[in-house]
Task: structure prediction
Amino acid sequence: MNAVAAHPATTTGIAARVTGLTKVYGSGEAQVHALAGVDLAIEDARFTAIMGPSGSGKSTLMHCIAGLDQATSGEVIVGDHSLATMSDNELTRFRRHHVGFVFQAFNLLPMLTAKQNMLLPLDLAGRDPDWPWFDELVDVLAVADRLSHRPTQLSGGQQQRVAIARALMSRPQIVFADEPTGNLDSGTSGEVLGFLRRSVRELGQTTVMVTHEPSAAAYADRVVLIADGKVAGQLDDPTQDGILNALRQIGA
Ligand code: ADP
Ligand code: MG
Result:
């Protein structure tokens, strides 16, 4: 572990817990039970991958834990924050201070340099950057020689590394990544997944990644399988073969 670390570890070893989570979209005949009673603990300082068939509820689950969407019933606890009863304003504040996001499409602002992109979320939250932490992230994500470049001057892999550094700048309780390698070729995907893996192992950054690629999920410490809005299984220290088998068993 490095001298400077990500969000301080919890005393419970659990970064987030969901209990009896349901999410219903629409009403009447158009009703969809996207989540049908999910119980799940996300461990601290570990890399969790969420997998499952298309439409099984992966994104909905992630959005409910990240405070991007409100569950219909059940409980979501992140650190010592209970999300179920939060207002929209409270959820916005919660997201700004306690979670980081990495997107498939990178979502860097084109008119800003890599460094400015990294600092933007803190600017928006009215917080001063922690410069030793900034330096640590620049080092771990190997973006030191790219800080003054704009996104169009960076490769896809470099852009995603900057986006990961941006997500970690506020020392969030959890970083959420939804298909972070969906726009990258396989070589670059491996490189970016290696950097996500490093940010968990070396910086203690709790990370949750949604992916449909067994090769990507194999980088995680644990794979959680979702089917029909429920947890259908979990794999620790997963291998690509083990993941493929487990997916076959749930009919994915
Ligand atoms: P996944 O990410 O596993 O592909 P989602 O969480 O996106 O699955 O979706 C789960 C189910 O909820 C799907 O049937 C999807 O069509 C439905 N759903 C997701 N978002 C909405 C929404 N905003 N309105 C209505 N239905 C939705
Ligand atoms: Mg999805």
